[in-house]
Structures are given as C-alpha cells and as structure tokens.
Amino acid sequence: MGFLMSKSMDASLQKQQEFMLHNSRLQMERQILMQNQMRERQMAMQVAWSREVLKYFGSFFAVAAVGLTAGAIKRKKAGMLAPIVPLSFILAYQMDSAYGTLIYRMRGEAENIMASEHDRLDLPLGTPTFESIEKARRAKSGLISLLEK
What we know:
The protein is mainly alpha-helical and 149 residues long. It is 83% helix and 0% strand. The chain is built from four helices and no strands. It is elongated.
C-alpha cells in the first residue's frame, strides 16, 4: 500500500517539477521579450532625439552660414568663414546620427569588441555574486538599524 502511494507521489512530484520548469521558462522568455522591447523603445527615443537636435542645429547652422557669408562678403575677410568648417563637421555628425548609418557602424564595432576584446567588458571585482550582494545588503541594513536607534 505504501509503495503505491509513494509511486503516486513520485509521479505527482515529477509533474509538479515539469510544471515549474515550464513556468520558469515562460517567465524567462517574457522577461527577455520585455527587456528587448524596452531596449527597442530606448533606441527609438535616441534616434528621435537625434532627429530633433538635427532640426535645431540645422537651423542654427543655416543662419550662421548665411550670416558669416554675408559678413565675409561685406567686410571682405575670408577668415570670417572659418567657423563654418567645424560647424559643418558637427552638422554632418548629427545628420549621420539621425538619418545615416552611424547606428549600424556602432553596432558593428560593439559586436567586434564583444568578440575580440571581451576583456574590456569585465566589471571591476568581477561579476557580482549572491554572496557579495548579500554582504552589501547586510552592511546597509545594519547601517539603517543603527541610524534608526
């Protein structure tokens, strides 16, 4: 009789473990999808921000270029056009960031770093462990309890 109950409990335990494993996989998949959606939204906000900055900087560049050109012609000093050169580099960067291939080049470089220069990505003191986190938590909770007294 005990053997039959034990066998039934083992089967029930096995089903429960499979169910828990399935649920943990579902939860992890959902977390991965959620984190990816958040990353995509952040990237979209960065691209939108770059485009907005480009609008303002493009307007500034146009006004500055017209003003500097008019001033250079009026005063007959070609040196007044010198600020256009660095401003044009900034404008080119902003255009590349907003509408160009900068993001793809950055992604490629990031993949290269992850593949061939992985040691640059190491955290100081290594990856946090459960023990290091618990140690910090205990130190902080001990400090809080001392402050409350």
